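Inputs:
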Amino acid sequence: MKLIRVNMSDKTIRVEDVPPEYRGLGGRGLTSIMINAEVPPKCDPLGPENKLIFAPGLLSGTVLPNTSRVSVGAKSPLTGGIKESNAGGTMGAALGRLGIAAVVVEGQAPEGELYFLRIDQNGEASLVPAQEYRGMRTYQLVEKILARYGEKTAVLCIGPAGEYKLAVASIQSSDTDGHPCRAAGRGGLGAVMGAKGLKALVVDQRGKSPDPVADPEAFKEAVKEVVRIVKADHMNAEVMPKLGTAGLVAPVNSMGAFPSYNARRGVLEGWENICGERMAEIIQERGGNPTHMGCSQCVVHCSNVFVDEQGKYVTSSLEYETIWAMGGMTGIADLDAIARLDNLCDDIGVDTMSTGVAIAVAMDAGYKEFGDAEAAIEMVEEIGRGTEFGRILGGGPVAVGKHFNHDRVPVVKGQSIAAYDPRAMQGHGVTFATSPMGADHTAGNVVGMYLQGLLDPLKPEGQVEASRFLQIAMAAFDTMGQCFMASVALLGPDGGEAFRRLLSAYLGTPLGPDDFPHALGVRVLKAEREFNRKAGFTKEDDRLPRFFYEEPLPPHNTVFLISDEELDSTFDF
Amino acid sequence: MKVRVNLYGTLRQRFPAYRPSEGIEVEVPEGATVRDLLSLLDIPQSQGAVVIVEGRVLKAEDKLRRGVPVNVLQAIGGG
């Protein structure tokens, strides 16, 4: 268990044992608790005092499948608060196999300098000058990195948007095919990486020094049981491998909760053209791959490879949130256009969600018509070229709203909402409002409870409790490095018990029902909220934009109904 | 009475001739419930089927109504 601290100001690299206060943590738990302890809350997110932390999950690098998530943490230039954004692909497992708990990037390289941080098969880290890669888009960059360091290399990198330090800049993660198509997209962490002078983290995937498991036999047995539960879940057995997360387009539109035309309506006209069912058909017809393994050690295969009419690669894993932001919010009911926009965002290195919503705000303000795909593509290209308008768009929905003096900006703490309208799915409103991350799609996603009929999405009752339960559970699972799909399957009592057995065997400490996910999740959320408080956030920041309370959303014509007092009770612990 | 059923998720694969533009028409007795419909369509519980009518998720004992199309989908926990 080691930390690698890299100082970009003086180019020193130190390797430390993980101090006792960080032991038993990984992923989001580690990045958030470290940032709260080590980053001055009022610092400039793009200055030398901020730290950029890459942490595989606690269980990344073990034999447990679906644990190749890497968390990236820092103070966010988009929200001004704490940020953890995690990505799949190959990096989580690569760092885990080397026994690296976190890479902490500190300081700031002098203006004009650019580096790769390379970690070899033995876990040795070095800074490599990378001037010749300046301005390079991510697909070309990763191709060159793999040619230079070998195919068995995991990459996290930024594109031009990160170098421009734009607030929607993402950190792109290479998948099992070496495409930088997975992203730690949210919160502008690509801008923090750009500000540090770091173009890419380049890690050998062949490490053989993972942290030891305390009770290997018990762990192996527990893994079998966890995998059995994950695979038995119909979502992972049926829907994810065949439709991926795009399978949500139909249910959420059917429930009238798909924020469309900058959240003016809850159903997108022509949504059947961009739903997961149609996407899978198109991919099949053209010879793409609807059941793709995007991440190391995955047994779910929720990814896909979308190809054009000639069968040529366009993008990998066209996801629900991207289809919504680039399709629903913009009124572009055309999968080919959405796939092109997805590829462009990955290549330039911007978050598809914040970018799609920023485009939607511009369209809503009258800059372009809803549904104009060519205009949307040109707008994203402007980000890549770094034009004046491109930099405004790259500042995110709030910056675009200010530019056009337009107040229908669907964000919380500066970060765009996700693909569930809080007026028709009230619990998502609770999560959007209260998550320390700003509005978020994984932090406490209630949609499953609505679809299972456990909760009425239009009524205020029970929403705070549902959001609280899920926010705590996800904060704990995000600490493990396990993906959302597997984690959701383990939320029930059997899954929780099986996972606790596994974690007990890993740590060599018996865990009780309150220890995981509850106690761990609460610990992580408390650290995140403490950082935000010190950064200047108050309960007034745990609110939705006015229009969600005032403007009824068709077809249900409902508004957001949860009172401020109820929102403030979400973290009564 | 006849009910128009639209299928989503992987449920379409259970009906090889299914065409999304047409859905399927199912004859159910007056007063038939969601449970009756799923049983008639031979969709087992393990499929996680969800019935949505006019934007609302129905419960197993809810009755179907004449002339109101029914969407049968699958529960997903997010993404």
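Chain A touches chain B through 42 residues (CB under 8 Å). Flag for discussion at group meeting.
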